[in-house]
């Protein structure tokens, strides 16, 4: 993420997705005014402000971070950054790319470093004390960023460069970042005047506080609602899950019980295997009611306020609704195009759900269960159908999915496609923020050139937000001296008992590869400027989704999927079953995701005065003929992608948009002479789809890789859905 981009997308940064920084202060160039002394790199007592020190071009001082330093560090860093911005805005010299755009790219070193630590506290080691600071500082940060985006003199200088004859003489990347920066100003209120500009800034501050409260409410429900069960309630649960649940309960002071934590990684396997239907319903309701319990952590009123404020803010800019504003700069361009894609897939998805439910109901009837399939039954009976139709037992597959082996498989793929080598860094050489975190050095296999470091924080724990994500502590740039990459992957796997490997599900293995795809996107970057790392949301998931496809390649299966006890490779017969069942339960997976994506667009194209979240969610899903046996993957009251910040707001559809690209690109590899390890295609993959980041328009980059635009037909085939005008014999 570029320096300026970091500034104008504060809320995403505050949501702890990390930030990169360049460690050198702006140079004084001919015709520039002298930058204030405060911006020169100085020695700070506060470690959060200090330059990254130590090996590998410097690393964050995670071992020295103290929460008491955070607030003063943020305040000092904001002050320093504003001085830099004022110097750029008030420079009497004629605006040039060098003294405006490059100067902005160099600004904000201290703030970028503080955000790195802020992100760790927010995502990896949250606490009540941190949340107090977060609640206090979020509106202050928003006000700070508004001072930059609404700095009229600064915008006029950016605009002058953007409209100057000099632009034509710049490199393609320099032209693009100039456009990105200009557009970010224009898109975020820089053109407003008077009361409208003031109100825009006020709204941003109000939203910042609401986003923080929303996410903290969800985290509170995840921490407070733990289901404890006794030994006689373990029927059906795999040994690995039972051991992990025992450890989780012991950590929480209940050594005689078993803890089902209120996270997807715990809920999902419990609903898949537990034979206790009453408990399944309890765990299901606990999970899907996060943020919707009518207590002090209820998010419904907050959602209404967020939607109202977002609508008011874009109205100031002349847009009909928030989605129009949000998608203007995305690949989809407008909500109609995004919804059109969804509606091409939705009918096939819910039709497949109907078939899946019929299969499940048939088994339930045969067993004399005397039930009608409910949402808390779906995973349980889907597993029975899987075993009946494909003779595939998910728990049997899990025995071949060891976390460490899968990590080595990812390293193998990175070596084949990107020519990367991963070497463990000696413990203690690089500071980490928790003992679970391990670090690897990434180098070029042929030359030995240092590429960067890869941090891995794999396990769930209290204070760590749910889900899986990737981030950077520093991104690759060359415009002011070469900066190497510090990338990180973070997950919430339930750690295996001491001395035993951690076993994960097939879905979790795909997620592991997915997030590593983001890390490879960071590590393979070959761009000059920080702003080139700014993402296009309906494109940035593509690279990571595509990397999931290498999990099922023969090279990975044959060498890394081995039994955790015997060390024997996964049998060919079981592999065949996995591949045969690759589109199994696709109705469920597609429908639960798309319901969330469609509702996201509906929330942001509807007058918020007409929205009561719970009612709106229920009524709109009914209009879509949403199957009663499935709920949204992220119900509205805990839909953090959309309501704890703005990264995915009106843009959650982007996963599906990226899936179209993924399916289409996957078919290219399937048809290549060398398959998924085809050298010529892999070279184009790295050159056009990974290394360029946002230095090239994503649509153009994809065409350079594929030779044409992506086609939605590939997605339909990929999911086993019928393609209009294509018979089975065509596949």
TrEMBL record:
Record-annotated Oligopeptidase A N-terminal domain positions: 80-197
SUPFAM superfamilies linked to this entry: Metalloproteases ('zincins'), catalytic domain
Keyword Cell membrane appears in the UniProt entry: no
GO BP annotations, alphabetical order: proteolysis
CDD domains: M3A_DCP (cd06456)
Ranges in coiled-coil conformation: none
Domain Peptidase M3A/M3B catalytic: start-end pairs: 270-719
Any single GO CC term annotated in Swiss-Prot or TrEMBL for this entry: cytosol
Protein name: oligopeptidase A
């Amino acid at each position: 993420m570029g320096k300026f981009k970091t500034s104008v997308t504060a809320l995403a940064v505050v949501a702890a997705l990390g930030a990169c920084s360049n460690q050198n202060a702006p140079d004084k160039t001919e015709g520039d005014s002298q930058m204030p002394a405060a911006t020169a790199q100085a020695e700070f007592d506060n470690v959060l402000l200090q330059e990254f020190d130590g090996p590998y071009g410097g690393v964050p001082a995670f071992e020295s971070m103290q929460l008491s330093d955070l607030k003063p560090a943020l305040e000092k860093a904001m002050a320093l950054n504003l001085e830099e911005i004022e110097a750029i805005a008030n420079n009497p010299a004629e605006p040039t790319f060098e003294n405006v755009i490059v100067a902005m790219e160099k600004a904000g070193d201290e703030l970028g470093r503080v955000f790195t630590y802020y992100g760790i506290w927010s995502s990896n080691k949250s606490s009540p004390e941190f949340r107090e600071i977060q609640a206090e500082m979020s509106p202050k940060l928003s006000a700070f960023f508004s001072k930059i985006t609404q700095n009229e003199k600064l915008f006029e200088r950016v605009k002058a460069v953007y409209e100057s004859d000099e632009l034509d003489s710049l490199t393609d990347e320099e032209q693009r970042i100039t456009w990105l920066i200009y557009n970010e100003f224009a898109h975020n209120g820089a053109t407003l005047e008077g009361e409208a500009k003031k109100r825009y800034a006020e709204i941003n501050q109000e939203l910042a506080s609401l986003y923080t409260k929303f996410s903290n409410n969800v985290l509170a429900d995840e921490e407070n609602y733990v289901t404890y069960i006794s030994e006689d309630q373990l029927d059906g649960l795999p040994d690995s899950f039972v051991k992990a649940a025992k450890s989780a309960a012991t950590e929480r002071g209940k050594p005689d019980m078993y803890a089902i934590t209120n996270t997807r990684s715990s809920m999902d396997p419990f609903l898949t295997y537990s034979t206790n239907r009453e408990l399944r319903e309890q765990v299901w309701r606990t999970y899907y009611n996060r943020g919707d319990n009518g207590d002090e952590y209820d998010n419904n009123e907050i959602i209404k306020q967020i939607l109202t404020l977002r609508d008011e803010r874009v109205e100031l800019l002349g847009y009909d609704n928030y989605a129009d504003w949000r998608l203007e700069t995305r690949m989809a361009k407008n909500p109609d195009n995004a919804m059109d894609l969804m509606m091409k897939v939705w009918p096939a998805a819910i039709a497949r759900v109907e078939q899946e439910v019929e299969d499940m109901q048939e088994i339930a009837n045969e067993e004399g269960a005397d039930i009608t399939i409910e949402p808390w039954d779906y995973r349980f009976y889907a597993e029975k159908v899987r075993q009946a139709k494909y003779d595939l037992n998910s728990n049997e597959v899990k025995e071949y999915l060891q976390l460490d082996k899968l990590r080595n498989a990812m390293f193998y793929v990175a070596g084949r496609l990107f020519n990367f080598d991963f070497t463990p860094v000696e413990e203690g050489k690089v500071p980490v923020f928790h003992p679970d975190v391990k670090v690897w050095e990434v180098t070029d296999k042929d030359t030995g050139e240092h590429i960067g470091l890869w941090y891995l924080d794999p396990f769930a724990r209290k204070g760590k937000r749910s889900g899986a994500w990737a981030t950077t502590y520093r991104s690759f740039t060359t415009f002011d001296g070469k900066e190497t990459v510090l990338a990180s992957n973070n997950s919430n796997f339930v750690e295996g008992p001491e001395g035993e490997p951690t076993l994960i599900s097939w879905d979790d293995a795909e997620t592991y590869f997915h997030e590593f795809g983001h890390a490879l996107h960071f590590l393979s970057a070959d761009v000059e400027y920080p702003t080139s790392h700014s993402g296009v949301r309906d494109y940035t998931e593509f690279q990571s989704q595509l990397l999931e496809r290498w999990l099922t390649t023969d090279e990975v299966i044959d060498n890394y999927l081995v039994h955790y006890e015997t060390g024997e490779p996964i049998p060919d017969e079981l592999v065949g079953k996995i591949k045969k069942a690759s589109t199994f339960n696709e109705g469920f997976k597609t429908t639960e995701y798309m319901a969330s994506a469609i509702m996201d667009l509906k929330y942001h194209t509807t007058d918020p005065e007409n929205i009561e979240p719970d009612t709106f969610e229920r009524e709109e899903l009914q209009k879509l003929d949403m199957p009663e046996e499935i709920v949204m993957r992220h119900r509205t009251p805990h839909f953090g992608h959309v309501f704890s910040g703005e990264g995915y707001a009106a843009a959650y559809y982007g996963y599906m948009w990226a899936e179209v690209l993924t399916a289409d690109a996957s078919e290219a590899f399937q048809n290549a002479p060398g398959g998924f390890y085809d050298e010529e295609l892999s070279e184009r993959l790295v050159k056009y789809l990974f290394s360029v980041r946002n230095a090239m328009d994503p649509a153009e980059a994809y065409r350079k890789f594929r030779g044409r635009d992506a086609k939605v037909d590939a997605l339909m085939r990929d999911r086993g859905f019928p393609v209009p005008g294509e018979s089975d014999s065509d596949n």
